[in-house]
Amino acid sequence: MKYFISVDDVTAVVKSHGRRSRLLLTEEELGARGYALGEHTMAPGGRAPAHIHEVEQEAMYFFAGTGEGRVGEERCALRPGVLMFAPAGVEHEIINTGNEPLRFVWVYCPPLPSHASQKLIMRRIKINKIIIKKKTIPWHLVGFAYIHISHISPLIRPMTRPVIYYDV
């Protein structure tokens, strides 16, 4: 059984709006049950647009940078030492309002279906790259490429994620 992992050993998944996320703690890699944990970096001006997790609750602990968070109607200035909690079914968003990356650790409970393992995420990235090639999307548009989840096999389709973003 493995008990330690370094953020340097995990590939970051590039998402929309200047975001990078690393899935660190999963059931497959470290045996965690009932939750997943990761590290997130958001570029200046980046954002996690308003969204809802119907089943999962999410906690975020901020350790670098500044921004603004919203959960429901409540807003809060984000800075190192602030914890933000988004219950299941409640809309939330994060905006980096500072001049440096906004960094935080996140925990989902239960984990999103896409957080089953690091290997699953890497497999989805490879599948998306193949699909992009078959769809002949102009390569100059594929810096922050995305593929709608309906183009991916139902066997690996996550239940609550409408779009998978990745770096090519």
Word description of this protein:
The chain has 168 residues and is mainly β. It has 2 domains: 7-114, Jelly Rolls; 118-165, no CATH class. It contains 2 helices and 12 strands, in the order ββαββββββββαββ. It has helices spanning 27-30, 118-135; strands at residues 13-15, 19-25, 36-42, 47-51, 57-64, 67-71, 74-78, 83-86, 92-95, 102-109, 146-148, 163-165. The longest helix has 18 residues, at 118-135. The termini are far apart. Residues 130-168 have low confidence and may be disordered.
The total of beta strands comes to 12
Strand content: 35-45%
Work out the count of structural domains: 2
CATH superfamily of the largest domain, by name, is Jelly Rolls
Structural class of the helix and strand makeup?
Answer: mainly beta
Helical segment count? 2
Q: Report the oligomer.
A: single chain
